[in-house]
Amino acid sequence: MEIKLQPMGATQTNCYIVTVNNKDLIIDPGMGAMQWIRDNTSNPIAILNTHGHFDHVWSNDAVQNEFNIPLYIPKDDSFMLEKCPLGQNVPISTADYLVEDDEKLNIQGIEIQYRKFAGHTPGNSIIEIKDVWFSGDFLFEQSIGRWDFPFSSGEKMVKSLEKAMKIESDFTIYPGHGMSTTLKQEQKIMSYWIETVKSS
């Protein structure tokens, strides 16, 4: 598995191209991502969104139209593709597949596990491919996603952190912003974040 990443737009949102068996998966194509994707893919087969916020979905429609490939998004965030809850003028896109909670997918022979960790958004999920998590805005290096946006939920964020603390396997984490980390590293401070969210 080969992973390419490029921070996009003012929010420096990480867009990923994940290549498995010469097939490219595009994760979270943000603002201005089209040219970089065009220059760095040879066989794109799908677009995968971790959640519905504007900086992760901005180039969905452009990439769909360019390559004629399907778009996957967690079902509980699909409404954000029609109307941005953060008031941004995002190009509208339409999902081809609404991902169920914790659904396992097989896209052209590539095994993909969506794991729902709501809180930042209603459908916020990580995308698990082999031993890697593309964590969107759930987990960052030494931090977590905000829970004070419209449709965010501190209560759900706490439950998601508690769920993540119980996972025994380790994963390399490629987040929606910033540097990579590991699940074991972030589990060390999850209790701190749980208490922080509860007291907010």
TrEMBL record:
Xref: InterPro entries: MBL_Glyoxalase_II, Metallo-B-lactamas, RibonucZ/Hydroxyglut_hydro
GO molecular function terms listed in the Swiss-Prot or TrEMBL record: hydroxyacylglutathione hydrolase activity; metal ion binding
Enzyme Commission code: 3.1.2.6
Entry annotated with the keyword Lyase: no
UniProtKB keywords: Hydrolase, Metal-binding, Zinc
Domain Metallo-beta-lactamase: 12-177
Cofactor dependency: Zn(2+)
Protein name per UniProt: Hydroxyacylglutathione hydrolase (EC)
Biological source species: uncultured Sulfurovum sp
